[in-house]
Amino acid sequence: MSGFLARAKDAAEKATDAAADHTDKIDTGIDKVADLADKATGGKQADKIDAVQVKAHGARSDREAIRGRPHRSDRSRQLTPDC
Fold first, then answer.
1. Of the N and C termini of the chain, which has fewer Cβ atoms inside 10 Å?
2. How far apart, in whole angstroms, are the C-alpha atoms of residue 70 and residue 79?
C-alpha cells in the first residue's frame, strides 16, 4: 500500500475510534443542529428535519455497529455461498 493510502486509512481508523468514544456528544450535536434548523425555518420543515435527524442518528449507530468488522471488500472474499 502506498504511503498516502496507509496514512489515509490510519486517519480514518482514528476518526472512527474517536467517534465511537464520543457517541453521546455526537448525538447531542445532531439534536442541537436539528433544533437550530427547525428554529431557522420557523417549523415549516420540521418533518424533513426530523427525518434527517433520525437518519443521522441511524448512520452513527450503523457505523458503530460495523466497527471492528473487516472492510466490505475484505468481507466479500470471506463469504461462502449457501449451498
1. C
2. 12
CA distance 43 to 40: 8
Grid coordinates 486517519 are at which residue?
Answer: 11
DSSP letters for 5-59: HHHHHHHHHHHHHHHHHTHHHHHHHHHHHHHHHHHHTTTTTHHHHHHHHHHHHHH
Query: Average pLDDT per run of 10 along the chain, which is 83 residues long?
Result: 86 86 90 95 95 89 60 44 46
Whether 70 contacts 78, CB under 8 Å = yes
Does residue 75 contact residue 69 with C-beta atoms inside 8 Å? yes
Residue at grid coordinates 420543515: 45
User: Does the model's pTM come out above 0.90?
Assistant: no
